[in-house]
């Protein structure tokens, strides 16, 4: 499986993805799931992908190399789309194109056509936006009310985001919270694994501010993991035991 | 949906279950999911149930009123079984009996036969045990290595248990951690709802020590929710921002 999260904050965009893929528990690999389309000063677009690797790679290839859009009749790619909304539409079209090519054959092999994508970024002069595209090629968008979107194994890491992430959250705190959310997922689900890829884009910037791979040895992520563990331990220890329970013997 | 958790600790057994059921999002009700079979000094057995309400109620009725076991040819109930292992077998038999009665008709209505049960307790002179019974009527058992089992919406509340619960955890701390785990689930998933039911049984005791319903106004649970929220907020605020990120503008 996979865990990816995108935060649309007043200051900018944070996207984080793990790299573990598995075709059965005895076939585990590392594949980049955070994909990056940048022309400095002109566009910064980032996609995080979850689902069947054959499908997500096919979609990424179409979006990179371009394909004839049924909607516009022209060859388009994420390097040519004029807006993030059009980028989301094109991403949905790419998903549907792969479904038309491979969906029925996959179904005959009892393989589900599974793909979800987080698509975030900004094109010069346009809005910074963050979308979540589904297997059907339709999509939803993050808003100020709900400024984060997740794909893959999203439940373990959701409580901390539900509690702490708001549209006004500072970007550095957003990065920290996304990493904490990833840590909770890594600890509870073996199909999500290090290293993780992080992209940070400040609203209206010329280019991504951070595009960084974080592995087991990353000092900052290690520190987060250790301090978060210690803080949780201290937190539950500091909460008094129920006063309606007899004192424990241990 | 549902969230139930059982902790098998050196001191005893903790079981916690929410009460929300939903037949579609526009049909939400409160049903007790923590069921209690006790003959003081002789047996204390507790079942937490998740899945289709018609199925779980049918199973509970069979286990309460008794039915002719195919395995033994005698009428048995949770009030007659001689051991917790036999209780788990009988629970599995009850699940399969309901499946034989209703499974095919449910399938024809495209309704999945979903049921999972946590079964914990002790019969005088025998071991305290905790089982998880599946839809197929088979079951697994908690051990010292893995002293907690969950059913229903288990992912939101798993990280804190993964980090903090061990077989040697004191029972009062187990109650606290189960309530924190429930709180994380309640906050992130609307299909899990208050009130919640708590059962605490001390190993080799005459009867359950606590059998308590906890609602919105419960002072201890309110305190846990508030202090846990505050502690998490303080914890992530206390972690330094990444040193490889420029200072935030906000």
Automatic annotation (TrEMBL), chains A, B:
It comes from the Bacteria. GO terms for molecular function: peptidase activity. InterPro entries: Ntn_hydrolases_N (IPR029055), UCP009120_prtse (IPR016545). GO terms for cellular component: proteasome complex. GO terms for biological process: proteolysis. The keyword Electron transport does not apply. This is Putative proteasome-type protease.
């Amino acid at each position: 499986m996979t865990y990816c999260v995108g935060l649309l904050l007043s200051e900018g965009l944070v996207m984080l993805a793990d790299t573990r893929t598995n075709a059965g528990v005895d076939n585990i690999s590392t594949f980049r799931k955070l994909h990056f389309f940048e022309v400095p000063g002109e566009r910064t677009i980032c996609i995080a992908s979850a689902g069947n690797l054959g499908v997500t790679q096919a979609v990424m290839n179409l979006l990179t190399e371009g394909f004839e859009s049924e909607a516009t009749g022209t060859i388009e790619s994420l390097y040519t789309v004029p807006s993030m909304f059009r980028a989301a539409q094109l991403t949905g079209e790419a998903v549907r194109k792969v479904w038309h090519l491979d969906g029925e054959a996959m179904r005959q092999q009892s393989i589900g056509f599974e793909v979800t994508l987080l698509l975030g970024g900004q094109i010069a002069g346009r809005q910074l936006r963050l979308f979540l595209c589904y297997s059907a090629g339709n999509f939803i968008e993050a808003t100020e009310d709900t400024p984060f979107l997740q794909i893959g194994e999203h439940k373990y890491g959701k409580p901390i985001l539900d509690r702490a992430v708001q549209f006004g959250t500072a970007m550095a705190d957003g990065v920290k919270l996304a990493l904490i959310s990833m840590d909770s997922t890594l600890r509870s689900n073996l199909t999500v694994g290090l290293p993780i890829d992080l992209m940070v884009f400040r609203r209206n910037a010329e280019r991504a501010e951070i595009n960084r791979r974080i592995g087991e040895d990353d000092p900052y992520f290690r520190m987060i993991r250790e301090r978060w563990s210690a803080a949780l331990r201290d937190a539950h220890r500091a909460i008094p035991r129920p006063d309606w329970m007899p004192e424990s013997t241990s």
